[in-house]
Specification:
Nucleotidyltransferase, domain 5; globular; homodimer; five-stranded mixed beta sheet; 2 domains
Chain lengths: 299, 299
């Protein structure tokens, strides 16, 4: 049995996962937005509860943002209260369990590897959500870089002197290829176009989400097609960059935006000319939790 | 003893390298521009000559462009006659020696690793020349990717829908960060500026090379400073992208443009905000030959 935690901006999911990657018991609690130690105390309480019911060897924690897996720190992220927090040290001392921590997108990539993608030991997963995250699996292990910060795919530069990114750089991939960016592109289009999607959505701009363009392309809306065209070109730039640098066996796309798999792949195929296969993740929202539970095997 | 070949567009350098990475004997011949087999025959003749004088176990060949190390093919490059050429098969059959082939920038990175950079086993080398090449050293080995095409740093995209690249994509790094690009930026500046460099070079534009801006910055020319500023920003975009993806222990810059190390690093430092150290290669033009000679140890 393995105990994994998947820390998010809103809630912390946790669960017991067995050797066959089945989630035996799963629960969650709200993420305390004000105190990193409060979140860790909540995690320790969950460990106490689980150890009364199951036998597990260690704890694996996935968290958004910059995580130094080697030193066991969550350095920080926009939506959680961690700031250079010594997570491993704190949880180990309080629970007595060996503890591992890794970036959540890294955990999801590892989850996809152990459960989903069994045909290759070398792939890069791009997780498209509020931002863009990622994980690199090389020779069946998570590649974490010098201090655990590898796989920050959202911060590769695809547009020289482009949009400012909170990271301090300009033109970062996540400013163009995240679900947030797709929503922005959709809203920009709706404001200035008279197409079918724009006409219908002009008075309810705030209800536009990552599914809007997909829904309207199915209705034949040209303005929606133009948005997905533009977005796909941005998305492909990052895929091409990763392939030029690493030539993995596959690129795996994950995140809510990949739910409309056929349509997304159709638009990617229009612009992607590389030879590395691009696939959609098999595991959905539990990839991060499953990967976190087993992350100690990889680090 | 090790026998290495470094195939270039103009000449093929080759040499015997000892266990301490000293070049014992070195020579070169012109690259036959018209026939890939003619180049291979010239290589085989050099092997015959060297085997009469030295004892070596295998042959290592570095070549520009796309090289499939795993299958032993040189797929092709702009300045050599190779086109899906089965180099390893041909040379092994003709000489009887086990033969390895790898991309020349990959060989240079491996040469830098074994001889130059002894303090880390994980770095990315960016070789700046006519184009931009590179090599990734992970855990002391050349990382070659799925079919040996990893490390094509010149083709990561840094400018969405930017300049067309012969590879078929737009906005590739080498269109902005190669020595060729620096020369282009310099010429563009000279044509439209009235600064010191521009005034003096306007009538001899064809004599502008990669050193021109460096020479004029030392003379205090503002127009030259502006060119290197612009170039350094491009260069940094690629460095940042590599660091976001891989977080190596170091980025190593190589190529003629790094000869004016202090000035180049001063300009890079103005824009580079990452934590991964950026260094200049210790080995100069022999890195490719030394790396090729030993490449069998890495592949």
């Amino acid at each position: 049995m393995y105990l994994g935690f998947d820390i998010g901006g809103t809630s912390v999911k946790y669960g017991i996962v067995d050797e066959n990657f089945n989630i035996i018991e799963k629960s969650s609690f709200a993420t305390n937005q004000h105190s990193d130690i409060a979140v860790l105390d909540d995690i320790c309480n969950a460990v106490e509860y689980m150890k009364g019911k199951y036998s597990f060897d260690y704890i694996g924690i996935g968290a958004p943002g910059f995580v130094d897996s080697k030193k066991g720190y969550i350095e920080g992220s926009a939506n959680t209260p961690f700031k250079h927090t010594a997570v491993v040290d704190y949880v180990e001392k309080k629970t007595g369990f060996k503890t591992y921590v890794a970036n959540d997108a890294n955990c999801a990539a590892y989850g996809e590897y152990i459960y989903g993608q069994t045909d290759t030991e070398n792939f890069v997963m791009i997780t498209i959500g509020t931002g863009v995250g990622g994980g690199i699996i090389l020779n069946g292990k998570l590649f974490t870089g010098s201090t655990g910060l590898a796989g920050e795919i959202g911060h590769i530069v695809i547009r020289h002197e482009g949009l400012a990114c909170p990271c301090g750089k300009r033109g970062c991939y996540e400013q163009y290829a995240s679900a947030t960016a797709l929503v922005r592109l959709t809203k920009e289009k709706v404001k200035k176009s008279d197409g079918l999607m724009s006409s219908e959505m002009k008075n309810k701009i705030d209800s536009i989400d990552g599914r809007t363009v997909f829904d309207y392309i199915r209705k034949g809306a040209t303005d929606a097609k133009e948005v997905l065209d533009k977005y796909a070109k941005y998305l492909v730039d990052g895929i091409e960059s990763i392939c030029s640098l690493l030539q993995p066996d596959a690129i795996i796309l994950a995140g809510g935006i990949t739910n409309d798999k056929e349509l997304l792949m159709e638009y990617i195929s229009k612009y992607y000319k590389g030879s590395t296969p691009v696939k959609i993740a098999k595991l959905k929202s539990d990839a991060g939790l499953i990967g976190a539970a087993f992350i100690g095997k990889s680090l």
